[in-house]
Amino acid sequence: MTSAILLPAMALVLWSFVMWAWLYATRIPAIIRFKIPMPPTMTKNDLNAALPADVRWKADNYNHLMEQPTLFYAVAMAAAIAGAGEGVNAALAWSYVGLRIVHSLVQATTNVIKLRFAVFMLASLVLLALSVRVTMAVV
After folding, report:
1. Would you give the distance in Å from CA 42 to the centre of its chain?
2. Residue 1 has pLDDT above 90, yes or no
3. Which tens digits make up the pLDDT trace of 113-134?
4. CA 121, 126, 127 angle in degrees (round to 5)?
């Protein structure tokens, strides 16, 4: 099966791995630099309390990429299977991916909440439009 919508879906998967690498590239040096003990009883909250905010932001964004984008992957697969993954739907998919990358960069660098929220809402509206279009194609 080939469909134009599969490429933006895979681009977002690969972007998630970029964020995964970035989170470890900042987290591990911070753990070493701040000599954060890592006992087996340490919780995620304990670690987050010990790490600087700018280090946590990368991990927070990686976690966000495991949330709403799962809906995007389902919609992209449905579009591809239904033969509705071309044209406007592919453009909407690329728009969603681009906005999620912008969201990642905002959160991982400056974490300006109002800007991050605006980008998230715009991406969500794009995903909603794509979801409605694909639903109409499979009905």
Report:
1. 26
2. no
3. 999 999 999 999 999 999 999 9
4. 95
Q: Structural domain boundaries of the chain?
A: 6-138
DSSP string, the chain: ---TTHHHHHHHHHHHHHHHHHHHHHHHHHHHHTT----TT--HHHHHHHS-HHHHHHHHHHHHTTSTHHHHHHHHHHHHHHT--SHHHHHHHHHHHHHHHHHHHHHHHT--HHHHHHHHHHHHHHHHHHHHHHHHHH-
Instruction: Classify domain 6-138 at the CATH topology level.
Output: Four Helix Bundle (Hemerythrin (Met), subunit A) (1.20.120)
Mean residue pLDDT of the chain comes to 97
Cβ proximity of 90 and 4 under 8 Å: yes
- The separation between the first and the last C-alpha atoms of the chain, rounded to the nearest angstrom, is 20
Amino acid at 69: P
Closest CA to 94 of 19, 1, 15, 12: 12
